[in-house]
Amino acid sequence: AENQKKTEDIFRRLLEASRQKLAPGQRQRLKWGEGSVCCKLDPQGCCLYCLVTASMEYPERYAFALLDELLRDVTRDYGTSVSSLQPGGLNKKLEKRMRELITQYEDTENYDKVAETVEMVEKVKAQMHNNVRTV
């Protein structure tokens, strides 16, 4: 309980500082102990999305890709109503999705392979569409 309170205090201060230090849509990575806290302010400037990494070695691009995906999910599912929620108002609703995203992004080698496969499929689809148009 003590540790959770300290963490909540730190994130409360991060949220307050983000209002002055980050422009809407801007992101920042901060060192925190052996790891980092990756923060992204949503395009409206009302919600701060954060991810804590255990190590500074974790690639920044994956951390922000996870936050971008979470931001898209929240925007799609809650729209502008998210700004009127109480602190922690999405904790229960997003817990499962956050676990899925963490699992997906935890293994960076696997993520690269999946991204490569998706990119290849998109190229093949585009080529197929071009072939259909010429026929």
Low-confidence stretches: none
- Major β-sheet annotation: 3 strands, antiparallel
Q: Structural class of the secondary structure composition? A: alpha+beta
Span between N and C termini? 66 Å
- Strand content range: 5-15%
Mean pLDDT: 85
Q: What topology, given as strand order, has the largest sheet?
A: 1-2-3
| Helical proportion, percent range | 55-70%
Q: Mind telling me the C-alpha Rg?
A: 18 Å
| Overall outline | globular
**Order of SSEs, N→C?**
HEEEHHH
Number of helical regions: 4
Number of strands: 3
Describe the protein in words:
- Helices cover 61% and strands 14% of the residues.
- It has 135 residues and is α+β, with helices and mostly antiparallel strands.
- β1 (27-32) and β2 form a beta hairpin.
- It starts with a helix and ends with a helix.
- The mean pLDDT is 85.
List the helices and strands and how they pair.
Layout: H1 2-21, E1 27-32, E2 35-41, E3 48-53, H2 60-78, H3 91-106, H4 108-134
Antiparallel strand pairs: 1-2, 2-3
Helix pairs in contact: 2-3
Descriptive terms for the model:
globular, 4 helices, 135 residues, 14% strand, alpha+beta, 61% helix
Short account of what is shown:
The chain is α+β, with helices and mostly antiparallel strands and 135 residues long. It has helices at residues 2-21, 60-78, 91-106, 108-134, and strands at residues 27-32, 35-41, 48-53.
